[in-house]
Amino acid sequence: MCGIVGLWDSRGKRHIDGGVLVRMNESQHHRGPDETGTHVAPGIALGHKRLSIIDLKTGQQPLFNEDHSVVIVFNGEIYNYRELIPELTALGHTFRTRSDTEVIVHAWEQWGEACVDRLRGMFAFALWDERQQTLFLARDRLGVKPLFYAQLPDGMWIFGSELKSLLRHGGLKRDLDVQAIEEYFALGYIPEPRTIYTSARKLPPGHTLLLRRGQPAREPRQYWDVRFTGANTISEADAQAELVARIQESVRLRMISEVPLGAFLSGGVDSSAVVAMMAGQSSEPVNTCSISFDDPAYDETRYAQQVADRYRTRHFVEQVATDDFDLVDTLAELYDEPYADSSAVPTYRVCQLARRHVTVALSGDGSDENLGGYRRHMYHLGEERLRSILPLGVRRPLFGTLGRWYPKADRAPRFLRAKSTFQALSRTSVEAYFHSVSIFRDDMRASLYSPEFKRRLAGYRAAEVFERHARAAQTDDPLSLVQYIDLQTYLVGDINTKVDRASMAHALEVREPLMDHPLVEWLATLPAGMKIRGTEGKWVLKKAMEPHLPHNIMYRRKMGFAVPVERWFRGPLRERVQAAVMDGELAHTGFFDRAYLKQLVEHHASGRRDYSGPLWSLLMFEAFLRRVHTADAGSTPTTAANEPPALVRVA
Questions:
Q1: Lowest-confidence pick of 121-130, 204-213, 311-320
Q2: S-S: 580 plus which of 12, 38, 47, 584, CB 3.0-4.6 Å?
Q3: Where is pLDDT greater, at 642 or 620?
Q4: Bond prior to 153 in cis (omega within 30° of 0)
Q5: Average pLDDT, whole number, for the chain?
Q6: In what order do the strands lie in the sheet with 221-222?
Q7: Do residues 138 and 116 lie in contact, with contact meaning Cβ atoms separated by under 8 Å?
Q8: Does position 69 have pLDDT exceeding 50, yes or no?
Q9: Phi/psi at 561 (5° precision)
Q10: The pTM of the whole model exceeds 0.85
């Protein structure tokens, strides 16, 4: 795992200041503390920070082909590189290293843009071909590895693994994107391709960007997508056996390493399945890492210990106080843009623990999205059955009225918390699913924003993100539709972002065997009934794992990786969140209705409502403004030379 940066002149071969490249590169030192490499030539500059995992002696980057006409900087792992080396050698290519990086160079020479179709793994890379005067950027199919880029007004392109590397360039305008802000307060993250700044973009998963000097810039090209067909007629027994075999193969590929390797073990079915498959293919005890909490309501270590004992792993556990909220500012700086998943706190800590013992860790991420593992998937299917009874023209006025007038009952038994259900039934399937995952729901965001901010939004709604992906899903199956949306949004923007930044903060490589793209493609062919059976999600995985894992591991209620934010905001963080929301940077943006902000704080503190999610998102947005956006804005011009500097500018 590494960090990459670069600059490219689209208009000619102007001199590039090597000092700027170094500044951008060093901003990502945490991603690769083992080695640093740069390449500067007229019109092109590439930088690399290396975390050495494979081919420790000869895998340095930037890496060139034989005549130095092609050069690459690469972040990630190509798991099938050992199969590609003999194929490319037979085609006449000469290898000087044993690294997966060099495979990409020769694959580009052999297959051009189609080289990405041959790569199995997680990756983000930038490749410069001097002969073709071509810059080629690529990102893996499921967005495990990030890649940010921007075109500056002078024709220079800049790119990097993290947004902070672009900010360190000094020429990127910091105008905040109001549509990105709308998406953030709805979802808790900013989905691809937006960033918080209008001038920068994320390369979407499964996309490449090819740029040729002297030619107009292209739009990113999609080279991969998953199709949920549900058309596989395999028997349940055969599906279970094939699933085990596929996970075993995916785990085996991800155990290739020349440095210490282990796994996260939460005690849930996903990480436990990965550990079970690792133990079956390792001659040595598997290293496993777990975080315990001092509050039993959040602690799963007894389940993790069961799996560790069964497979005799070398198990490491560290206790974290549930009042571990001092990371707020650290997380804001780490994520570079607003990010509101509070499980980033324990994720940061478990990566910190793992790095003390291993350099590579396998995780169980990706299973819920691919196998219908979230409770919201089951609730959505139940609502869909009700929506199918009445047409939208009847449901919208009927349930819309009930949703407006039914009281909010956060603490009541679930069958009495009908307000959200009524609101969902008054919507289309996509609108309802968006509603179910929103932090600030539509009516709350309408109250949150100031009149001026609403004017700037000009009617834009974050739900358009889901609607755009729904149009591309090519399926009418209710479960498949929301799974596809999750893969394009939540998995990439929330889960993968969280794990990448938290792991790279500690120079730890995390590999996700349940996101192996051939496995994902195969799972998409299985009918919905193999994923959700009654009230049981991930049904086929649990049945397949019954010979390998204790029954109570698989069939207990899903806990998630949570922290007690609700209690924090009524106790130790009460004054902090009040100051941040009412008196901090938020108050000076002009984005928000201050009376509504005060209402959120007071109603939560009094216990009348649970606004922990909305308040956490506001706290993290304020921390972003304070620790990232304005912290070193002096190095990045955001206003015209004759204007006084502003705290916040929006496009």
A1: 311-320
A2: 584
A3: 620
A4: no
A5: 90
A6: 63-64, 70-78, 121-129, 134-139, 207-212, 221-222
A7: yes
A8: yes
A9: -105, 75
A10: yes
- Between 3.40.350.10, 3.10.450.50, 3.30.70.360, 3.40.50.620, what CATH number should domain 236-372+492-554 receive? 3.40.50.620
Q: Across-strand partners of 319?
A: 292
More confident residue, 580 or 201: 201
Cβ distance 84 to 115 under 8 Å? Answer: no
- State yes or no: pLDDT of 453 exceeds 80: yes
Average pLDDT over residues 112-117: 98
Q: Is 2 a catalytic residue?
A: yes
Task: Give the pair of three-digit tokens for residue 415.
Answer: 């069958």
| Rg, C-alpha atoms of the chain | 25
Q: What is the pairing mode between strands 63-64 and 44-50?
A: unpaired
Q: How many residues does the chain have?
A: 651
Give per-residue pLDDT as tens, 8-42.
999 999 999 999 999 999 999 999 888 899 999 99
- Rounded to the nearest 10 degrees, the angle between the axes of helix 612-624 and helix 178-187 is 140
Tell me if 2 sits within 8 A of 74, measured CB to CB: yes
- Using CB atoms within 10 A of its CB, is residue 115 exposed (0-12), middle (13-18) or buried (19+)? buried
Is the pLDDT at 449 greater than 90, yes or no? yes
| Domain limits, the chain | 2-222, 236-372+492-554, 375-486, 580-635
DSSP 196-247: SBTT-EEPPTTEEEEEETTSPPPPPEE-------------HHHHHHHHHHHH
Residue 422, classed as helix, strand or coil, is helix
Beta-carbon count within 10 A of 43 CB: 21
pLDDT greater than 70 at residue 294: yes
Catalytic member of 2, 115, 289, 351: 2
CA atoms within 13 A on the CB side of 584: 21
Q: What is the CATH number of domain 2-222?
A: 3.60.20.10
User: Are 122 and 76 contacting, i.e. CB atoms less than 8 angstroms apart?
Assistant: yes
pLDDT tens, residue by residue, 524-573: 999 999 999 998 999 999 999 999 999 999 998 876 666 778 888 888 88
Residue 417 has pLDDT above 70, yes or no: no
Confidence band of 320 (pLDDT split at 50, 70, 90): confident
- Return the number of other C-beta atoms located less than 10 Å from residue 64's C-beta: 17
Is residue 411 classed exposed, middle or buried when 0-12, 13-18 and 19+ CB atoms within 10 A define those classes?
A: exposed
- Structural tokens at position 132: 């073709």
Q: Which of 76, 56, 82 is nearest to 147 (CA)?
A: 76
**Taking a C-beta distance cutoff of 8 angstroms, is the pair 319, 293 a contact?**
yes
- Cβ contact 563:345 at 8 Å: yes
Query: Please, where are the H alpha helices in 311-428?
Result: 328-335, 344-355, 367-371, 375-387, 392-405, 419-425
Place 646 in a pLDDT band, splitting at 50, 70 and 90: very low
- Can you name the residues that pair with 76 across neighbouring β-strands? 123
* Closest alpha carbon to 125 in 52, 204, 208, 66: 208
d(CA 238, CA 250): 18
